[in-house]
Amino acid sequence: MWKNVLLLWLAFIIGLNGGHSQWFGNIVESNKGDTAATERCFCQLKGAIDDCSCSVETIDSFNNLKVYPRLNSLLHQDFFKYWKVNLNKKCPFWEDDSRCAIRYCSVKPCTEVPEGIKGSGKILGPEVKSKARPKDVSDCDHENDLGYLNTTLSKESQARFERWAAHDSAQDSFCELDEVGDHDSQYVDLLLNPERYTGYVGDSAHRVWKSIYQENCFRPVKNPYADFSNIGADEFLKEMCLEKRTFYRAVSGLHSSINIHLAARYLLSDKTGFEVSSEGVWGHNIEEFQRRFDPELTGGEGPRRLKNLYFLYLLELRALAKAVPYLESLTYYTGNEEKDRDVRNAVKDLLSVVKSFPKHFDESSMFSSGLMQAATLKEEFRGHFRNISRIMDCVGCDKCRLWGKLQVTGLGTALKILFSGNFDQQLSLSAVRETKFQLSREEIVALFNGFGRLSSSIMELETFRQESLR
């Protein structure tokens, strides 16, 4: 009996995820895809987004014309490009046996960090008067090896940097955050370590997403072991409540976003001409995109996965809009007074655009079905997501782990904003400053960069669409 149950459940996982469960694919020699196959991905990617009062077309226009240019510029600023992370945590669920297939997931520290970034200061509070300015750092201006991670700071600098982190409330957290004082945590320059294909393969690479979907996503109530491989995810989602559907769509949207970036920044060649290149040749791999999203190759699930990306975009957009008073009150301190002022102005400009969107995700109807039942469901929701954040420590490729942890932390921060109750009423600036609720610097950087990944994914979809028409 249990053998049959196991087989049915495995069929459910395979049918639900198809190629979606494979984070990284193999290197292919050709970048030429089937135009008709790519068009199939997009002809079904239109119209209303489930559980939202918005359309794909509306988001495309809003993001590509208004959000992405502002956000992309902002994320190049010092405050948002340095993120503290522990890449040495042991996987709590299994022994890591993964291997990177190519050298671009290797780690090499950048020897220096601009002095202003090492300064101390509060991200929430009065304007900082420090006139410290970062010095030029020639060896960090460019990514000499695109696979390297910038991880070096002195212990003294780390101690000063820790003052940036505010104490967040544990009961509101949806993520297992790295400890602020953890000596294994290091600052990395996100611009020097872009999210892209790394050749990460092996059992561990497949096990990460399989564990997320199989053990940490909500299952159908009526028959959790049913074989949905022939009817698709929509059928089993119909019998789930809004909260559980939201959870699944958010995770699927995150997965889709990651897959888009891997296909958009794919290693096309290790050579420039006849010579081996130290940096490689990177670009859009249409075949890889089709493999992950073509409806004929994914049992009809590819376009739904892309729509889940738009769903997640709306969810995180709503979190930013809900936290506008708080986010506008931060000083975004780096020690460079002029640049910090520019960042604050840029943040306010971006948030004004975020507020202007007429059809945000509506979280008000979630966790509202009776006090005890809602509390139990919210705790289950939080527990599942905290487990997912822990699974990110099982990713065997350092660069993949970096971006997995950052994007999961960004989504967890968005959920914290939406469901902590701290922003259910519009707060004045004075009220914001008096509240005990705070986000750490790492959460704020992850929130903006995580949303930036979603914004970039939607832009990349337009690029794939245009390339399919050539």
From TrEMBL:
Q: Which cofactor does it need?
A: FAD
Q: Where is the signal peptide?
A: 1-21
Enumerate the active-site residues: 397, 400
So where does FAD get bound? 196, 198, 209, 252, 255, 292
A biological-process GO annotation: protein folding in endoplasmic reticulum
Assigned GO CC terms: endoplasmic reticulum membrane
Per the record, the domain of life is Eukaryota
- Cystine pairs: 100-105, 140-175, 397-400
Q: Which residues form a coiled coil?
A: none
- One MF term in the entry's GO annotations: protein-disulfide reductase activity
The subunit field of the Swiss-Prot or TrEMBL record says: May function both as a monomer and a homodimer.
- Give the family per the record: Belongs to the EROs family.
Q: What is this protein called?
A: Uncharacterized protein
| Species of the source | Petrolisthes cinctipes (Flat porcelain crab)
